Amino acid sequence: MPELPEVAALADFLRERTSGHTVRSVEVGSIAALKTFSPAPDALAGGTVTDVVRHGKWLDVVVATADEPLHLVFHLSRGGWVRWSDSLSTKPVRPSLGGSSRGAVLALRVRLDDGGGFDLTEAGTRKRLAVHVVRDPAEIEMVASLGVEPLDPAFTTDVLGELLTRKNQQVKGLLRDQRAIAGIGNAYSDEILLVSRFSPYKLTGSFTPEETARLHTAIGDVLTEAIATASGKPAKELKDAKRAGMRVHGRTGEPCPGWNGVPCGDTVHEVSFADRSMQYCPTCQTGGKPLADRRMSKLLR
């Protein structure tokens, strides 16, 4: 799933290619992906793209129409992606109900006046891509309820401290909670916890002021580094760039590079859940003790 750094890069990529262009048409390929019905997607036709912005992990294409500004807002979820073309196919998009195919399904096509444009596609059997056409992004409850942006100056150490004490929970869960901190997901929370040297199971109520400051610094450092890596890359390269930049996430069994870039001699461990997994280093994060993996424990009985 794309997180803050990749979504920021996608916003830059789309803004550069769409701003100032007129929307020729919007064609719906997957009815299931469209979460709103009024305004209709074709209300965007004839409007001019004025900006592309990010809200957490949501992308917002701002279109000035003759009647009012509209927003094409979408969340790519786990299997969604943006596919740009300088010359889109002229064949009409055939609507579908989404289906159960694992292959990429065309959910939405946006054509511009110069023949270019982009497709929103989704792969996998669980279709969670969400597309909204709204007058105000705040009409979307999940956008309106987003927490603080982690790279905003307003996200201070004191603000993080307040979030840590609001509810005593595992710190991994807080980092992934979009209502608390917007834009961090499963992958970058793993990276942040390695760099800050905390167990993903550490309870937020146990953080000292020094530990809070350490976590705050790691959040900024990891996301800033990832944004720099993603910046300027075309959409088709962002997934590979994200994978290549990971220290522990997705690297189970590989040598740990160390929280400070000095290999610690341990290997990356994994804890599996029903729909995701997390990776960590016992030496760097949990005092050398592996965390229990309930799924693996069941297999070993």
UniProtKB/TrEMBL annotation:
One of its GO terms (molecular function) is lyase activity. The keyword DNA repair applies. Signal peptide: none annotated. It catalyses: Hydrolysis of DNA containing ring-opened 7-methylguanine residues, releasing 2,6-diamino-4-hydroxy-5-(N-methyl)formamidopyrimidine. Keywords: DNA damage, DNA repair, DNA-binding, Glycosidase, Hydrolase, Lyase, Metal-binding, Multifunctional enzyme, Zinc, Zinc-finger. GO terms for biological process: base-excision repair. Transmembrane segments: none annotated. It comes from the Bacteria. The keyword Transmembrane does not apply. SUPFAM superfamilies: Glucocorticoid receptor-like (DNA-binding domain) (SSF57716), N-terminal domain of MutM-like DNA repair proteins (SSF81624), S13-like H2TH domain (SSF46946). Belongs to the FPG family. This is Formamidopyrimidine-DNA glycosylase. It comes from Promicromonospora citrea.
